[in-house]
Structures are given as structure tokens and as C-alpha cells.
Prior knowledge:
Shape: globular
Structural class: alpha/beta
Mean pLDDT: 88
Largest sheet: 6 strands, mixed
Amino acid sequence: MTKKILLVDGNALIFRAFYSSYGRTNLTTRDGTPTNAVYSFINMLFNIIKQNNYYDIKVAFDLGKKTFRHDKLDDYKAGRAKTPPELITQFPIVREFLTSAKIDWYEIENYEADDIIGTMSDQLKNDLENEIHILTSDQDMYQLIADNVFVLAPQTGTSDLLVYDKVRLFEKWGIAPEQVIDYKGLRGDSSDNIKGVSGIGEKGAKELLQEFKDLDGIYANIEQVKGAKKQKLIDGKDNAYLSKEIATIHLDVPGLTYTLRDTQINFEDLKDFFLKYEMNSFIKNMVMKLRLKKLKSKSQQFQNEKHNLVMKKIIFI
């Protein structure tokens, strides 16, 4: 029997949740604690869980600003806009929610959420009964796609999702998952301040990888590359390999231990959290669900009693 497992990029999701409502929704508690990102984070998680019968859910976060990648590239992720203080205060609240919901979450010093998810998915995919879904807006995660590993990419705010498998990735970039790190090596990634090879764009990277497979293949056959592209590759060789190394997700994070378990979310676990942060809409929804559940139970009980009564009459006749 297939077990669906959801691995969530906590940092990517909370940033997306925050900016999806930024400037439009100013949710705060009565004491002024901002909760708009938390609310959107929870709402999206609930929507995904509602659409899929997940056996287990794991969430990964970055821990601190410095990782082993900064040892290789000093200005890694430099130039990113400063995180708004009203978002910073919501990170611990999201963790508090996950703890209340009994959803396992992880953060490990010197590593990013990508590496935690990469390690888990690489191990879990070996059991073909597992179907792994990775919820993230980080395109680096495309390198983790496999026959039973899929990337769920939010499209509009935190509602619509695009599911990436090998076919959809090829339609997008014209490459296979194992070529993603070479693609990043060539193109770079401005969001992470990864340079890549100057002058090599999406079309050029795609053509090179389709012809030569990876960076090693390109540089082993550099004389076959024509025109200005050849000199660009020669000049940018060091950057290409460094960019590839930085973009490569670590698949063996030390100290990461976890256990798969049947994760069930129920109102009793979350009631105090929702009351504390004044998330009345979630409380109302859950109360309605509980009432509906009780009504269904009573209806079933009535039907059973009615059936038993009819059977007794038949027997008596």
C-alpha cells in the first residue's frame, strides 16, 4: 500500500505565506503580535492535507544565517532583502503550531532546509511504497525529483500548486533531475547570489546539457563548442564548478534522525493554540466539523437502530 509523505520547506513556505498577504491582510492579536504569515502557512498546509491522504508530514527549517556553503562562497545569498521584523517574530509561532499539531519539524546547524529534505527524500525513495511530495518554491529541489518523488510548487500566493515530475521538469528546462546542478552551474542563481557562467542563459544551458550531458562532458569537449560561447565557458569554468557545488543539495546530513509515523491532526491538539493567537476562523471551522461529525454519528446510530427494529419485526412475523 502506498504511503504518501509530505516534506515541507518551512522557510520557503512561511516567506511565501507572508508576502502573499503583505499589504493586504494585517492580522494581529489584541496585543499586537502579527500572525498573517502563520495564518496563511496553516491554511495552505490544511488545504494540501485535505487534498491528499498523507501518512506522515515533516517540516524542515534553516537554522541561522551561516552554513557550510558560506565557507565555499563568502557572499552566498548576499544581496537578499532584509527579513521584515514582523515576519521574524512569526517563525517561532509557526514552530509552536507544528509542535501543537504533533507535526515533526527539524533544523540542524550549518545546514539548510534543502539538505534536511534532500537527506530524507533520498532515503525514503528507496522504499517504492513511499510517495514523497516536497512542498517548496525553491527550484534547487528539482534535483530531488525521482520516480516516487515529486515537487509541489506554489504558483499563486499559497493556493495553486504545480506538481513537478520528470516529464514536467523536462518540459520546463529540457533536462533531467540529475542535470539540475549542472544547469545551475551554467546559469547560476541570482536569488542565492550564485554567479554561474557569465553570458550563458537558459537556452544556452539547455542546449549544452542536451548535447554534452553535464559540466564534465562540456569541458571534456570544449573544442566542439562554437563561437563566443566557447570562450565564455573557458573564462567561467571555475565559477561553473563552484556554482554547481553550491547548488548541490547535501544528501547525508549528519545527526539527522527521524521516524515515519501516522500523523493525525485533530482539534483538541490545536484548540489552545488557536485561542492563544485568536485565530477564530479556524476555531469556527473545526467546531463545525466536529458538529457535522457528531451529526453523522447520530444519523448512523439512528439508521442502525432502525435496521435492528425492522429485523426484529421480521423475525416476530
